[in-house]
């Protein structure tokens, strides 16, 4: 059978990985797919760079629309990234009746509902395994492997840059700004790392996983997002002393009041497997009723790990293109008419535990005042750590771990605590999840 003809839009790091892995493993891939997969055309503005990788084996163009307009191309791989031209090209490819494979988490998180609707109308496939956690097959696990389960929650380390930074802060006792510079020097962080360190990249991925887990529309705009820029090395050290580690987690939960969708620094018990994920690695923990807890671990970025997911999607397209569109696995795991517009909860309505760090004057009665405020808000204390004041100083750090409470009650308590004359500056608040 003639190989399926593929057009590749964007020959950056991942594009180069896709081309290389396809070339190297072509025989193995064909044995699995039942048909060869041939990149027939590549679109990239830097034609000389593409030639250095692909040589004369592929037609190279600067205009991606030449791929869309090529009647021989059956599948388009979009690796341009971003919301702008990538969205236009993907919709044009769908309108032209071509299947699409993308690694663009931002595009799927923000415009996924529109793209999926367009693909359904044309009967084509949009595959996006590489959009979440690089080479870890988490989309397939959620959509297919866990089909029998009622998924209750997902918690993921889904941004390698921030996990590298937090690992370095913990191991070396350095502050965020110092580690960020080192991460940029080593190539783990971009020159402009905003999407990573502010939690936006993780929120894109969490939004996609939430939609698939719970059968709701993709709703990135409703996610609560906090990054790691305000984390201090002292909090990482105190958390360690209390038996916890701090990770930037993407969390989504099913509750009686709706769905939680949030990204923020989180204390998790050091004994949990996910707490041991260090460096630039990713991990996603899923809790479902039948199977219990499952953990998916691996490289979340990079040329060949991401290429692994892109090519897996290509193989799925080869296998499924002749299948009646109504019989294919739904984009969001649930049948289109069974996707529910469930409310995504406000952060003030979520319930969790908390780590609080207060800088207090070391005088009698300060702890009694703080515990009274917490008690008035029905917030109970799980653990307390009071540091000795340094010689010659009359102030110290007070660390409190609370049991579960609603965020709005915690915010109200913090406001009253900060008003105490014995409390200096702002209270540091970090959410805590047991993940049990």
Plain-language structure description:
With 436 residues, the protein is an alpha/beta fold. It has 3 domains: 4-135 and 303-338, Rossmann fold (3-Layer(aba) Sandwich); 138-299, 2-Layer Sandwich (Dihydrodipicolinate Reductase, domain 2), CATH 3.30.360.10; 348-432, ACT domain (Alpha-Beta Plaits), CATH 3.30.70. It is 37% helix and 26% strand. It has helices at 13-24, 26-33, 47-54, 65-68, 85-95, 105-122, 138-145, 160-172, 176-186, 194-197, 200-214, 233-241, 303-320, 366-376, 407-418; strands at 4-9, 37-43, 59-61, 75-78, 99-102, 126-127, 151-157, 224-225, 244-255, 258-269, 281-288, 292-299, 351-361, 381-386, 395-402, 405-406, 423-432. Strands 7, 8, 9, 10, 11, 12, 13, 14, 15, 16 and 17 form an 11-stranded mixed sheet that branches. Strands 3-2-1-4-5-6 form a 6-stranded parallel sheet, with helices on both faces. Helix 5 (85-95) links the parallel strand 4 and strand 5 (99-102). The longest helix has 18 residues, at 105-122. The termini are far apart. The model has no long low-confidence stretch (mean pLDDT 95).
